[in-house]
Specification:
With 491 residues, the chain is α/β, with parallel strands linked by helices. The protein contains 16 helices and 20 strands. The strands form four sheets. The chain has a six-stranded antiparallel beta sheet. The chain has a six-stranded mixed beta sheet with strand order 16-17-18-15-19-20, sandwiched between helices. Strands 2-1-3-4-5 form a five-stranded parallel beta sheet, with helices on both faces.
Length: 491
């Protein structure tokens, strides 16, 4: 079947769009031109163009009024509008996932490319919507919002599985409507709103009747609008919310809180049973992340929550890595929009023999944040590739300590372990591991700490048993490239 020719309506009282009209026609797009807002409204209602491109300075009928009428009409409500105006101008009712704002002056070739890309994406979406078998794709090419709109239009039953590195999520559809969602242990609207933040990763749609309990009753179009609104608000206000790893406690007993607090506020305040971490409250509440963070901010501003230390932690104990360092590391790994979600990085340990690995493992005993890997502890004692354990840096970030034999035979394994690499610690007492040390320093571009480097690591390496301060200084050395701050290990 021959694809239907695309139709674009250009509306301007001047010749602003004439060069663009020529480029569009050369690309096989049908173009209609009108000179005022009233004529543009009439033609948009009559022909329902694929895109309406309008100069915000259009006369006779103001652009915001024209857009309002089009959105109120069932035939034209989904017509994308490209608004062309001065940088920073606000359009009332602008729909972020449908409309587009083009600041003047604009490049005609660039705008043409954006239009053709949108048409190409729509054609791909249509083919996905008509598929009757499993469909896979990339969220970078087809956003989750587009997928859901396509499946809703085609009244699809099935499950959308979404994955991004070590994160996974699920959205269940019945006749095109979202009825349930899950990310880890989080379910319902809370999980769905989190998934809407994912801009990268893979998706797979598996058709079939979803055998799950309905946990979402809001119509999908309203669900998308609310989710995008909350996520936009959360991103813009993130700096005003309490950090996820900080601890707070009620400043007065729960029974003495002021009267008149909203049910949501009381519900969240009740989660503070002694010193409690912000991230724990966010995860424990069924309410959306944005709503929980809003309530916590209000409780802090009202003096009803006060910052405190972790249970059982001495006030003077310094963090292995502070909040700013953790944020810088997570941002480096592309997690700017998901700072509250748990993630990890690797700290590779190079060793010549099992004795070196065993001594290093013993040195970490007594450090509260270290959790040894049971399989390694109960192994045969030989030097093998695998996890030694993990360091809990914060509620949302940990380091995997990974033992990597640095023999010539193991060289082909080095490259795959460069992904999400925090640093490399060499336990060698001579230059026998020099080749591996140079590889990670030059190819992976991460710091390499060597036990034999007495000038830089004197009194730090080798670590003494339970030497938390020495471990902290070593981790600061590894964190320096992520934070942009020079760290002196010996300080």
């Amino acid at each position: 079947m021959t694809p239907k020719q695309k139709h674009i309506l250009l509306a301007s009282a001047t010749d602003l769009f004439e060069p663009l009209a020529t480029l569009l026609e050369q690309s096989g797009v049908k173009v209609s031109i009108c000179r005022d807002g009233a004529q543009a409204l009439e033609m948009a209602l009559k022909f329902t163009p694929d895109i309406l491109i309008v100069d915000n300075a259009i006369t006779v009928l103001a652009v915001d009024k024209m857009a309002q009428i089009l959105r109120a009409n069932s035939q034209s409500e989904k017509t994308p509008i490209f608004f062309v105006g001065p940088e920073g101008e606000q359009i009332e009712g602008f729909r972020r996932q449908i409309d587009h704002y083009v600041p003047r002056p604009f490049n005609n070739e660039q705008l043409l490319a954006e239009i053709l890309t949108r048409f190409s994406r729509e054609e791909k979406n249509e083919s996905i919507g008509q598929a009757h078998t499993e469909v896979e794709g990339d969220l970078g090419q087809i956003p989750l919002t587009d997928l859901l709109q396509v499946f809703s239009l085609n009244r699809k039953d099935g499950v959308i599985s979404v994955s991004d590195q070590d994160k996974k999520g699920y959205i269940h559809l019945l006749e095109g409507q979202v009825i349930s969602s899950r990310v880890g242990q989080v379910v319902g609207e809370k999980a769905f709103f989190r998934l809407l933040q994912w801009e990268s990763g893979k998706f797979r749609f598996t058709p079939g009747n979803p055998q799950v309990e309905r946990r979402i009753n809001m119509p999908t179009d309203q669900l998308l609008i609310e989710g995008m609104r909350q996520n936009d608000e959360m991103r813009s206000q993130m700096s005003t919310f309490p950090a996820g790893r900080k601890y707070y406690e009620l400043s007065v007993p729960f029974g003495h809180l002021p009267e008149g607090l909203r049910p949501a506020t009381l519900e969240i305040a009740k989660l503070f049973d002694g010193p409690t971490q912000v991230m724990t409250v966010v995860e424990s509440s069924m309410r959306s992340d944005y709503e929980v963070l809003q309530v916590l901010r209000a409780l802090i501003e009202q003096g009803l929550l006060k910052e405190t230390t972790a249970p059982g932690k001495k006030d003077g104990a310094a963090l292995l890595l502070d909040d700013e360092m953790v944020v810088a590391i997570k941002e480096f790994f592309g997690e700017r929009e998901n700072l509250l979600e748990e993630s990890s990085a690797k700290l590779i340990v190079l060793a010549e023999n099992d004795e070196q690995a065993g001594l290093f493992l013993q040195a970490l005993q007594g450090v509260d944040e270290f959790e040894p890997e049971s399989d390694f502890l109960h192994g045969d004692g030989g030097l093998s590739l695998g996890d030694i354990g993990r360091l809990e840096i914060s509620e949302t970030f940990h380091l995997r300590l990974f033992l990597l034999p640095a023999t010539e035979e193991s060289a082909p394994l080095w490259r795959p372990f460069c992904h999400r690499l925090f640093g490399v610690l060499s336990l060698a007492t001579d230059i026998s591991l020099h080749e591996a040390e140079n590889y990670f320093f030059e190819s992976a571009r991460v710091p390499v700490a060597k036990c034999r480097d007495n000038e830089n690591f004197n009194d730090v390496l080798p670590l003494r048993r339970g030497d938390r301060d020495g471990l902290r200084r070593l981790l600061h050395y590894f964190a320096a490239p992520f934070t942009g701050k020079e760290q002196e290990v010996g300080l």
